[in-house]
Amino acid sequence: MSKVNYSKMSDRELKNYFLAHRHDSEALSIYLERRKQNKPEVIAHVDDPDFDEKMAAAITTQLNQNKLGDLND
Question: How much is the pTM?
Answer without folding.
Answer: 0.52
